[in-house]
Every structure is written in structure tokens, then in C-alpha cells.
Amino acid sequence: MNNIFLKNNLSIIQKITLSGLFIALITILQKVVAINYISIVPFVRVSFGGCALLIFASVFLGPWYGLLIGAASDILGYFIFDPKTMGFFPQITAIYTLMGLVSYFFFVLVRFIKNKKVMIITEYSVFTLLFIGITLFITLSESVTLYSSTYVLELWQKITIPIIIFLLFSLLIILNYFMDKYFSKKSDDRIYFNVYQISFACFLIEVIVMILFGTLMKGFAFGFQTYPAILITQIIVAFFNIPLNTFIISYIMRLTKRFYPCQNEVEK
């Protein structure tokens, strides 16, 4: 009978120690090595590896460790790195707490999806619809509201934003293809996931946790008049996050493969 849960050979002490290391690394990547506040859109963050490490920590250590790491890294980052004039928003912490919890279960889910075409068609179709939706919104809207201020959308912005999204979408497709070619040559029976499974899991996390739940939480925090602007920016960031997170997680999984039992041992 297949064991649906992901297992490794780490002891409790090792997991606790690694949790502390993950918290420190994620805090630095999320707050220091990151673009924390894009322009005037609040709390839309581009992190160069922070989310990838949080997702991997959840898969590697388990969902409850992931939950604690997600919450602790955001709270610690606020008290150490955020300006003291900025208030604490538990809604933002809730986003990373949820990411740390559910990432494990998304990877359990995609482990059973063997057909690459299903994952590719689903992921790329959703992003095509998002691209069309944003393009229509940007083209048809004359302005966007942030807080109590209204900003006029200039013609160059209506042209540039869809082009940027299209380029990021194209980059996502190209990188997934070449990463799959690269990592498939280094396959091992201790590795559970191929590149398209990891990409699809990261896609689910971005859509459900960051775009749907995350934008809702930011709407509660900053007012729903900011919702369209934050939603659009969060979708654009997702096109960047997915290939980056896919590469980092794929690479780290291969570095840590010795901690996993062999596939035939797991499925007994």
C-alpha cells in the first residue's frame, strides 16, 4: 500500500535545529535580499528565494514545522528589519503561515499526478486567462485606486504592463522546459518530484495562497479600494516566483536526497 505522506530520516532534534536555520535564512531573504514594497503597492514582495525555502521547509520537515517557520520568519522579520513607523499586520503573517502549512499537502497532491500534459495544460491555461484578464482590465480602465488616492493609467503603462506579463509567461514556459531537461538527467529514486510536478505545486501555492488568500488579506489590511492594484501586481509577481521557486526547490531536493528513504522503501 502506498504511503501518501512524505518522509525523511531526520530526528526531532535535527528538525528543530533546521527549523531555526530556515527561520533565519527566510527572514533575511524575505526582508533583506528582496524587493519588499514595489513602488506604491503595499506589501507586494519579490523575494529571491524566501518563499522557495519556506515551501521546501514545509515539504522537508512537515506541515506543522512549515506553519511555525512561516509565522516566525515573518514576525521576526517585522521586528528586526521593518521600519518602526510601520504597523504590524497579522493578515500578512497569516499569508506566510498558511503557505508553510499547506505547501506540504500540495506536494502530496501533485505526487500522484503523473501526466505532464495535465499539469502543463492546467497551469498554462490558468495563466493565459489571467494574462487576458489583466490585459483587458488595464486596457479598459482609466485609473486605479490606492488608499484614498486615484492614479491615472497612462498609455505607456497600458502597453508596458501586458508586454511584461507576456515576457514573464514566455520565460516561465521556456525555463520549465529546460529545467525538466536538465534535472531529468540527474534523476534518482530518492527524489519524489519532477520539474513539472514542482512547478505545478508552486503554481497552486501562488494562485491559492498568494493571489486568492493573500490579496484578500491585504484587502482587509489596507482597504478593498486597493484590491485591484494589489491583485494585478500579485499576479505579475507570480509569473516571476513560479520558475524561480521551481528551480530552487528542484535543486535543493537533489542536494538533500540522502535524507530520504528510497522510493521502494517508502511505498511498502
Structure summary:
With 268 residues, this protein is mainly alpha-helical. It has helices spanning 12-31, 50-61, 63-81, 90-110, 116-140, 155-184, 195-222, 227-255, 263-266, and strands at residues 34-35, 46-47, 143-146, 149-152.
What attributes characterize this protein structure?
single chain, 268 residues, mainly alpha, two-stranded antiparallel sheet, 9 helices, globular, disordered C terminus
Q: Given the C-alpha coordinates, what overall shape results?
A: globular
Number of helical stretches of at least 4 residues:
9
Helix coverage percent of residues? over 70%
Estimated structural class: mainly alpha
Sheet of most strands:
2 strands, antiparallel
> Uncertain segments of ≥5 residues (pLDDT<50)?
264-268
Strand content: under 5%
Secondary-structure element pattern, one letter each: HEEHHHHEEHHHH
Radius of gyration: 19 Å
How would you describe this structure to a colleague?
70% of the residues lie in helices and 4% in strands. The chain has 268 residues and is mainly alpha-helical. It has a two-stranded antiparallel ribbon. A hairpin with a 2-residue loop joins strand 3 and strand 4 (149-152). Helix 1 (12-31) packs antiparallel against helix 2 (50-61), helix 1 (12-31) crosses helix 3 and helix 6 (155-184) packs parallel to helix 8 (227-255). Residues 264-268 have low confidence and may be disordered.
